[in-house]
Every structure is written in structure tokens, then in C-alpha cells.
Amino acid sequence: MKKLSDQLREQIEEKIATGKLVPGQHLDETELAREFGASRTPIREALIQLASNGLVQIRPRRGAVVSTVSPQEMVEMFEVMAEFEALCACRRRSTSA
Hints:
Number of helices: 4
Oligomer: single chain
CATH class of the domain at 4-68: Mainly Alpha
CATH architecture of the domain at 4-68: Orthogonal Bundle
Distance between the termini: 17 Å
CATH topology of the domain at 4-68: Arc Repressor Mutant, subunit A
CATH superfamily of the domain at 4-68: Winged helix-like DNA-binding domain superfamily/Winged helix DNA-binding domain
Structural class: mainly alpha
């Protein structure tokens, strides 16, 4: 079962990929928490994950914004993330057997 922050990351990621959240748009933790029915802590964790993937920029004392990413860069990021998640799933399966 996925952690809440992972689920939120995927939902925010989808909103970025589909253009519902646009490059340069400020991501307010309180608004996202209200929208997804979660507390700010898992939202913050999801934003940190997205920042590590390059989809979001976190600016100290100014919050997070959607990164400016070309369509080609976005496709490449999603491909890498999909491969990484598949690798993690294989490892979990092999260690639980």
C-alpha cells in the first residue's frame, strides 16, 4: 500500500502533466491540503518528492512553484520515474518472497 504522500505526489504530478497546474504557478500547501483532504505534512512531502524529480521548485520562504519543463523533458522524466518504480516493485517482491 502506498503512503499518502506518494498518492498525493501522483495526483499533483498528473495535474502538472495535464496542464491543470501550469509552469510558474505557485503551489499553496494549504489550498492543496484542502483540495485533496489531507494535512499539510503529506502535501509538503509530496512537493519535496516532485522537486527531486524536477517538476516543482521549492524556494525558501516563498513556497513551491511548478517548474518550467519542455514536453520532451517531461516525457523523459516520466519514463525514468516509471523505470525506477518498476525496479522498486521488483525489489519489494523479491525481498518479501
